[in-house]
Design brief:
42% of the residues lie in helices and 17% in strands. The protein is α/β, with parallel strands linked by helices.
């Protein structure tokens, strides 16, 4: 066995692959750092997903990282490279050949995470499986959809697919103002109307195939939320947050009642003082007359 100092001097074993290795392959004496490359433009139902591997690789570090969070990558990788545990990093790759301009490509990079296609997922091997899971780095992590506040619009995988030429045929201009629903609304139960997305103030109808994929992505992230909510630490933090909110509301109520009573008492005392002054002045006035 190598000492800690000797281990740090040895170069890590790096493995780049498009498929997930079997647990038996990783059963080695020397930790392996695996990069699992995910084709973001492909049908996600045929792409390796970290959510499929959380249980069978629960003894390893697992990380599905966002391509736009380079600061997190720079912060975590030195620690992971030096660890004595296997590391599986699911790394979304987005080829720019499917985009006719750089703006669409950069927007797609941000939508990889926001659309819940490849959310940021961090798993640390611990005694408790649920305690090792962390999804808090995702924007609005406790919701299956991210909302653009500037236009009150919730994002789905369809918004990501629309920007890539590979999926162009699945979207058609839509100008019927008689009624429509967005993809998130449809997935949450609003049916009976055409399903659309909005891009630069223009509406586009969405094909059934894209809706099926959106539903698949939606289901995956919804299951992930349920799993994370079962984390005892998360339950404890949520309970403390709710108790803290209830305490703060009660404290605000007490403060309000106290302020109101104080104002009433101050007004009462002011009235007594005014009456006493008035009475005193009348007494002084009658004395002078005598």
């Amino acid at each position: 066995d190598l000492s800690e100092e000797e281990f740090k001097l040895a170069p890590p074993l790096l493995w780049f692959t498009e498929t997930v290795p079997t647990p038996s392959v990783l059963n080695t004496q020397w930790p392996v750092k695996v990069f699992i490359l995910q084709d973001s433009a492909a049908d996600p139902r045929n792409t390796p997903m970290i959510t499929d591997d959380l249980l069978r690789f629960r003894d390893h570090f697992l990380w599905q990282c966002s391509p736009i969070q380079s600061d997190i990558l720079a912060e975590r990788w030195p620690m992971l490279l030096q660890s004595r545990t296997n590391v599986l990093t699911y790394l979304p790759i987005l080829d720019d050949t499917g985009y006719d301009d750089i703006e669409k490509y950069l927007k797609s990079l941000s939508l990889i995470e926001k659309s819940r296609l490849f959310p940021e997922i961090w798993f640390t091997p611990t005694g408790s499986f649920l305690q090792g899971l962390d999804i808090k780095l995702n924007e609005m992590y406790d919701s299956p959809f991210v909302e653009f506040k500037d236009r009150s619009y919730r994002v789905s995988w369809a918004d990501f697919a629309f920007l890539n030429e590979h999926w162009n045929s699945h979207f058609q201009p839509f100008d019927d103002e008689s009624g429509w629903v967005t993809v998130p609304d449809f997935l949450e139960g609003s049916v009976g109307k055409p399903v659309i997305i909005t891009e630069t103030n223009e509406k586009y109808s969405v094909s059934e195939e894209v809706i099926r994929i959106c539903n698949w992505v939606y289901g995956r992230y919804t299951d992930l939320i349920k799993l994370y909510r079962s984390n005892p630490d998360h339950v404890r933090a949520k309970l403390l947050e709710e108790l803290g909110s209830a305490y703060e509301e009660k404290l605000q109520s007490i403060r309000y009642e106290f302020d109101e009573k104080l104002k009433t008492e101050q007004n009462k005392q002011a009235q007594i003082i005014r009456e006493n002054l008035k009475k005193r002045l009348l007494e002084l006035s009658s004395r002078r007359k005598k």
